[in-house]
Structure prediction request, 110 residues.
Amino acid sequence: MGLPEAIARAGLRMLASDVGRWVTGLKQSIDLSALDWVTRAGDLKTPTLILHGIDDKSTPVAASERFAELRPDLVQLVRFDVPGHSLEWNADTEKWESSVTRFLKSLPAD
Prediction:
């Protein structure tokens, strides 16, 4: 996001630290490793749809691609040719809506 790497690392350390969390206003620190679904792919139990722009600079698509490769039984990845983050619907409303509809229809009726 344009921050110097040292500042980004310091921010992440604060989020994960019990001592630094007072700066962030968090009630408890965040276990950042728990957010790494590529590493934790074996833990996934819920069908997951990922809508990801291939030119997303803040969240590279490679992580979503790897996650989908590791769990093809539960993860559906739909790539969009858009720059930036969270612009998929804006760029291709029809593709976004049909992907979500298809995913929801594929879920078991419980």
User: Anything to note?
Assistant: The radius of gyration is 17 Å.
